[in-house]
Amino acid sequence: MPILEIFSQGEEIVTGQTVDTNAAWLSEQAVQLGFTVARHTAVGDKLGDLIGLLKEISERADCCLCTGGLGPTSDDLTAEAVAKAFGLPLAFDEIAYRQIQAYFSNRQRPMPEVNRKQALLPQGSIRLDNDWGTAPGFALQAGRCWFAFMPGVPSEMRNIFLERVKPLLPDRFVLTPSRLVTIKTVGIGESDIQQRLDGLQIPPSVQLGFRAGIDEVQTKLLFPADYPAEETAALTYTIAERLSSRFVFGIDGLTEKVGSLAAVVDKLMCETGAALAVVETVNQGLLSAKCMGSAWLKIAVFERSPSALCERFGTAVDENDLSKTGARLAKALQDQRAADFVLVQLHEGSQSQFRDKDRTIILYNTLLTENSFQQSRHILAGPIERKQNQAALFGLDLLRRHLQDNR
Amino acid sequence: MPILEIFSQGEEIVTGQTVDTNAAWLSEQAVQLGFTVARHTAVGDKLGDLIGLLKEISERADCCLCTGGLGPTSDDLTAEAVAKAFGLPLAFDEIAYRQIQAYFSNRQRPMPEVNRKQALLPQGSIRLDNDWGTAPGFALQAGRCWFAFMPGVPSEMRNIFLERVKPLLPDRFVLTPSRLVTIKTVGIGESDIQQRLDGLQIPPSVQLGFRAGIDEVQTKLLFPADYPAEETAALTYTIAERLSSRFVFGIDGLTEKVGSLAAVVDKLMCETGAALAVVETVNQGLLSAKCMGSAWLKIAVFERSPSALCERFGTAVDENDLSKTGARLAKALQDQRAADFVLVQLHEGSQSQFRDKDRTIILYNTLLTENSFQQSRHILAGPIERKQNQAALFGLDLLRRHLQDNR
């Protein structure tokens, strides 16, 4: 597979004033097209750094997607750096100049003289017309590498990439797009997953990767384009089975795009037609906030303590048995016809235990439906926001398991 | 000024699965400490690439902050790459091992055997204890450059940087820190801010920047180390005044560190000693979730419609006047002694309007305290998650303004 690099120019990126979202966007595009993305580099507005970097890349990559540094001001140095790095003098591009003039006249504004600079392109380069802003991009071959230079403004960059750069790629590179399958889990860590896959034979052409996010842990399989569909499915299901359906809440890229745990629950809840009530002391609204957009979440109530919740819903608390208290609360809510399903989340542990990242609290989940009753218990650790988020996820996941088991 | 580079390891970064926010965060820290940040580089999990890059950096930078690749799995290669690049064999670190064991035993989980790997550190390196996750970091000098290796999980990385790495820097580098002041706003856009600053004289030594996030828009001023303190304050307040206290909820870096809007509200609410009840139809628990860790949020109730809320709290809905309905609900809650302050958020608009990113809904806020009553009305636009988030922010901001005005 051809090797591709991403190169971003901008003092605002290296100083951390701006997060470089262009690099991630372009990488995702490139991977899907069939490139191997080897490196991202960002440099500021020092001409020497820029020239050095361009030369390096021209020797080690087959393609480089570049953003930024095409503006009219003195710290926009990309064209000059290209000219110096590859000995390609800048030439005035008449068409580019007319486009820049038109951009300003369309907006009924005079063209500032500084913008003339944007019509200077390295000799022999292809102009990448910019219908979405002032600065045209340009593309050229230098050494081993084909470079495409685009503006740094995300909307302009995306349009120029999709409309101007992407169509040029198939003629220049032999590309076989690969297929990404993602197995999504909650409640199991990355190292646990790794251990469950121990000893499993994965063909060397399939790339295995992991990504631990706040809301899920992903096991990723990147299959080459010519990998047989049945074998893709077989390997995916083998792995999913090893991870267990207790933890796997969805598989992306095989038959469907599943989204987050909340999206999976949303789909399953819509199938049942049931409504849900949530009462809790522990996630402080986060579980319900994650279900935004759902029509089935009817009520969500947070109170600070199990006893406050019991008082509100007219039942008795048993401080020594939060499982029992959870069951009573769920029953009370159901009797009051609050909803078809009731999810209760209570916790044991003081406010200072909750806040202390080195101390744990215990979460008691109760799910009562028309014809079933389930409970689970989890230890929550880490900073308070993590405890909150884990509580929300474990609550959703109890619901998800019930719905998948009773489908 | 010493030259610093940022280096991120992770296939998920080069393939665009993850946006590298660590690089921007670390750069901002480094710039404030007095480093010149010259370059960001991200590479995937190819050992040869990693080794080559580490060698390059050891020759051209004075300091390098590195993230990622310290996990337990086979694609976590940083320690191995360091060992090979600089001829420093990996040695088993007894203390690191015990910390990793403790992490698991605290969570009452067995330590998977793969995690043992995380206790292997390059010979002669300093261990950077990780109290926030499993993997310790490490630091070492190689060639010209002092490297600090940290985990890629943002929360762990930030803690390790602030608590372990930052204290080591003043002894190793001659640093003259610059000063970053951030004016934080909610309810006003970036181009609006730019327009309000039009014509303002800002000295060329002061760098002005903007960053628009989900929860706030930041106007950033980077002052050189020798910039006089009074003039720093004067320029900051001039700008804050142009932006108006209606929108500015805090200024970071002048006299204090203010944090998020929720953190500002938290501090102000703690000063009052009052408790808050929130009832709403529109942010679905998000406002209360943002207040996690506060002791003053007593109750939060979400219901799908104003009429459902009114029924629950025994008052009458006026579908044609949600301001009136909000006032009635607040009064009912206060009469029931739910809390000292009551915040009601209702919305006008169907579920399909809510979901449609091209249609708007109207938010009605009511805040009732012991001796004041305030309302506000906002139009919410964009995707449903944005409407939800805006509602939560506008609710918190009404509370913030009341608290600041009555301080």
TrEMBL record, chains A, B:
Pfam families listed in its UniProt record: MoCF_biosynth
Ranges for domain MoaB/Mog: 5-172
InterPro entries membership: CinA, MoaB/Mog-like_dom_sf, MoaB/Mog_dom
PANTHER family linked to this entry: NICOTINAMIDE-NUCLEOTIDE AMIDOHYDROLASE PNCC (PTHR13939), NMN AMIDOHYDROLASE-LIKE PROTEIN YFAY (PTHR13939:SF0)
Name of the protein this chain belongs to: Molybdenum cofactor synthesis domain protein
Lineage summary: Bacteria, Pseudomonadati, Pseudomonadota, Gammaproteobacteria, Methylococcales
